[in-house]
Each structure stands twice: as C-alpha cells, then as structure tokens.
Fold this sequence. Notes:
Layout (H helix, E strand, L loop, with lengths): L12 H15 L5 H12 L5 H10 L11 H25 L3 E2 L2 E2 L1 H5 L1 H21 L2 H23 L8 H26 L4 H28 L2 H4 L5 H4 L5 H7 L4 H9 L4 H12 L3 H19 L7 H18 L4
Antiparallel strand pairs: 1-2
Helix pairs in contact: 1-3, 1-4, 3-4, 3-8, 3-16, 4-6, 4-7, 4-8, 6-7, 7-8, 8-9, 9-15, 9-16, 12-15, 13-14, 15-16
Amino acid sequence: xxxxxxxGVLPSLESDLERVEAALLQACSSDLAMxxxxxxxxxxxxxxxxxxxxxxxxxxxxxxxDRPADEAVIxxxxxxxxxxxxxxxxxxxxxxxxxxxxxxxxxxxxxxVVAILTGDFLLAQSSIIAASLGTEVAGLLGETIAALTDGQxxxxxxxxxxxxxxxxxxxxxxxxxxxxxxxxxxxxAITGGVESGxxxxxxxxxxxxxxxxxxxxxxxxxxxxxxxxxxxAGNDIIEGNYTLPVLRALRSEHGGALRDLIEAGLTPTTxxxxxxxxxxxxxxxxxxxxxxxxxxxxxGALSSFEDSPGATALRAAADHLxxxxxxxxx
Length: 330
C-alpha cells in the first residue's frame, strides 16, 4: 500500500537510499539476459525499502548530526533487501501469486522454475555481500534466512487450520517477518559502530516493529483494496492462511457464519462475504490493539537513546505504523 516513507525525518535518507538502489540493481545484474531480467524485475518495480532504511537509521543512532551513511552500512542494507526480494520470489511461487508491487509476479512472467532459481540467486548475492562485511554479519544473515524458512514452514503447517492459535501465528511471523527487520537494525548497528549495549536494543526494536508490521500487513489484506495493496486483496483467507484478524473474528459472534463459509470452500463471491464478516467483527480492532502493543514495545526499546538522527527516525517509524492500518478504515 502506497505511503510516504516513515523514516523521512532522517534528512540524508533519500540520498542514502539512492545509493542503496544503485548497489541493489548492480547486485541483481547478470550477463545472462533472462537472469538479469528476472532478478531485477521486483527491484525495478519499486518498494519503500523499509529494511535498508532501518539499517541506515540504526547506524545513524551513533552520530550526533546527520551525514551520509558509510559504504559498509549501505551494503549491509543491500544485503538485507536482497534477502527480502529473494523471499518474495519464493513466496509468490508458493502462493501462486499473479501480481506483486503492481506488476506481474515473476512466476507468472517466467514460470515457477525461473522464479525459484531467481530467488536463490538473490539470496546468494546477499551472502556474498554479507561475507565482505565480516563473519559476524555473514553469520547473522545466515541465521536470519534460517529463521525466515522456519517461520514460513510453521505458517504452511497451519494452512486451512481454523483452530490455529494466536500464539502459533506470533511464532510464525516472528520468523518470517520480524527476524529480517531485527537483522536489518542489527546489521546497521554493527556496520555503523554502535556501542555494544545499544546493539541489543536496536535488535529488539527491529523485532518488535516487525511483529507490528506483519500484523498491520495482515489487517490491510482484509480491509484494503487490490489497488491500494498493489497485490490481490483477501488472498490469505483464500489460501487458507488465517491471520490474526481472521483468528480473532473466528472467536467472535461472527465466528460460526465465518467458519461455515470457509468450510464450504471459498469462491470469489463468498470470499468477499467472509471479508465483510471479518471487517464487521471485533477482529480488526483486536488485531490493531496487538499491533499497537508491539509498536509501543518498539518505541520503548529506544527509550534510553538520545535524539540522534537515527533514533528520531526510528521512533517516527513506530508512531507511523499503526496509522497505516487505520487509513483504509476511514
């Protein structure tokens, strides 16, 4: 869903993200024409670059005045974004997605095999960059890719499980989403020379923000339009991925009717009916409360930080997050 970058209060961020963009496209390039086209497909489609933005902002918590990020910080942000992009190629194959970022998904344009191999290529490029930044960064990125995989498999295990618990949902999104945002902040702290005690606080911020971020994304899948999202709306419930707003709705007064619709097999028409039930249930408000709780925890992780450019930007991001989910609700 389009929105202004919440880290925009960091004055140098725009020029730093331009540097990320150039390095990202370079990392996506190949002398093999098909791979060059497929690997750069989603990078060229845009995106808010939240993860490299967090890498840059985390590093900027160590400086008193705004200045361009060091090259190691930029490349750390590129490594994190490559993992994110690679995971999107794999996600779209698993979800049989048709669009991503308002362009055809890679699996639709080149087929599943090319999409999977392209995702692998991007993960490999990320690993090469991480290795150049030192063993700590390389090890951290490897652990994060493992956490992403763990979270995704946990989600797959719960496919079509109407009795999925909120606790199981939390564990899955901790791996598949929050781990990479925590990694982005930690890499920024490491490459930016942040003192060791604050590295942990920034990692905690990234994880808590990531939890809120995924809950907000799942709320938007229910309440926003396809045009607003840049990908098909309501896809999760069709795929049997019952996210927090749906799980809360299933345990409300609308739960019986919602369960009946799902168990009968959702069509495009009955999917829309199911989404109306979720939207009019307490599920949205409950999920918003959960997102707000995580966003508050993220902000609290920075409570001891002075008002450096980076800390100010990260606090603004946490404040902005829940407003994203509330916007389509009017």
